[in-house]
Design goal:
Layout lengths: L1 H40 L3 H26 L14 H21 L2 H21 L3 H4 L10 H20 L8 H31 L2 H16 L1 H35 L1 E3 L16 H29 L2 H29 L4 H35 L6 E3 L5 E3 L3 E3 L10 H20 L1
Keywords: Membrane, Transmembrane, Transmembrane helix
Length: 431
């Protein structure tokens, strides 16, 4: 426990200004990109939609930078061969999927879309009025249709092509690959959120749900103790979600950014494809290998949650809960210090106050998360390690460099090499 306090103090003392700067930079860029996407959406919704994922990516980049900044202060997670633009770009790529999932689940993606629509709609109304025929593709109203689905598919195919041919492309194209990854992931989670909202709306309109609500109202009126127990259970569930699931999500994001891996390769990593031959096999295996490696890295990051043991995770969850309470209390105290004002005043100052408080508290959250993460990696029984985010090594020592691309070689040479490796395995097994 004393070592955890030392690591926490080292991270806070050594990196607080840098963490604060990265957080403020990400929030400022997020704000600018939301405004830019809304402005473009006031003239063309599609153009604004293509810019909106960059606003989410701005926050992701700031968090990736914050976690990689403190890595040298972590005794069990730092690496001498880590660092540089290549690792930063690759860590951002691998963190897009889990970060966007967390961003959507916490309602932040929906908040960005609402703000985008408000800005774009006000511009469209001021320009052409409320007539739908005059507005056309203006106003920021994102509807699930052929065009958004086409954007998702094009971005996904582009990402696969970048992954396949990255060895032949200039290094700067990793920026385009990151944008393609962010775009198709953004569109996917937007569709999932819309679908889930539709499912909930449909479910809420069923007669059985209305009957259950009536039963609940009857219990609330006639049996107050049952209602109290029900409300208490709902409160406990909310507390458990806030106290356990949210810290676990941040621990997973940190694990993905740091490139968590298993000491011994699990069965997922030993996966081999079918014995097909030819160009189709090469392309399919390249895509499948990329997906398998990405899933293995995500699974290793998730494993950090329980491989530290209940005592370590319990201490981490309590520390996170204390941080959340302190942040809420600090925000409330600042608002009370400012005092009451008109709505027009708070329209401009409310975001500034919340960002100012977060600039002080976010470095503490990062320090808590990385201290817990490093504590898990420091346990020999965790069987977890980190690797440079820019290079993935597959079983068989096939190096997959930037953008998870295998070095291309003639198909017959690959086939012969695999046959020779199989023969060696047979002889070893026979011995």
């Amino acid at each position: 426990m004393s070592q955890a306090f030392r690591i926490f103090a080292r991270v806070v003392a050594g990196h607080w200004p840098a963490l604060m700067a990265w957080y403020l930079g990400g929030e400022a860029l997020h704000r600018v990109l939301i405004e830019l996407a809304g402005f473009v959406g006031g003239h063309t919704t599609l153009g604004g939609l293509l810019l909106l994922p960059l606003a989410v990516a701005a926050r992701l980049v700031s968090y990736v930078a914050m976690y990689l900044t403190v890595r040298p202060s972590l005794p069990h997670s730092r690496r001498e061969d880590a660092g540089g633009i290549r690792e930063f770009a690759s860590a951002t790529l691998t963190a897009i999927l889990p970060f966007f999932a967390f961003y959507t689940a916490w309602g932040l993606l929906d908040a960005d879309q609402i703000e985008f629509f408000q800005i774009a709609n006000s511009l469209a109304v001021g320009g052409v009025g409320y007539d739908p025929a005059e507005r056309g593709d203006r106003g920021g109203l994102i509807a699930v249709g052929v065009l958004p689905v086409a954007v998702l598919l094009v971005a996904f195919v582009a990402r696969l092509l970048f992954a396949r041919y990255a060895a032949r492309l200039p290094r700067w194209t990793i920026i385009l690959a990151t944008y393609a990854e962010a775009l198709w992931t953004f569109m996917l989670f937007m569709f999932v959120a819309r679908w889930w909202s539709g499912v909930l709306d449909w479910f809420s309109q069923r007669e059985a749900v209305g009957w259950l609500r009536g039963v609940g109202d009857w219990f609330a009126v006639n049996l107050a103790p049952v209602a109290i127990v029900w409300e208490g259970a709902a409160w406990v569930v909310g507390i458990l979600v806030a106290a356990l699931i949210v810290p676990a999500a941040w621990l997973t994001v940190a694990g993905v950014i740091f490139g968590t891996t298993f000491d011994s390769t699990p069965s997922l990593g030993r996966w081999r494809g079918a014995a097909a031959r030819g160009a189709a096999r090469s392309a399919a295996m390249s895509v499948a290998r990329t997906l398998v490696m990405r899933l293995e890295g995500l699974w290793a990051a998730v494993a950090v949650i329980w491989r530290g043991g209940p005592l370590l995770y319990g201490a981490y969850a309590l520390s996170y809960a204390a941080w959340a309470l302190a942040e809420q209390a600090g925000t409330r105290a600042v608002f009370q210090l400012i005092g009451g004002h008109e709505a027009s005043f708070w329209a401009g100052f409310f975001p500034l106050v919340t960002v100012a408080v977060a600039a002080v508290t976010e470095p503490l959250r990062v320090a808590i998360v990385v201290t817990a993460y490093d504590g898990v990696l420091g346990r020999p029984r965790s069987e977890l390690d980190t690797r440079p985010s820019g290079v993935d090594v597959e079983p068989g020592q096939i190096v997959v460099a930037a953008l998870d691309v295998e070095p291309e070689r003639p198909v017959d040479v690959v086939g012969k090499q695999e046959d020779e490796q199989d023969a060696v395995r047979i002889r070893l097994d026979g011995a």
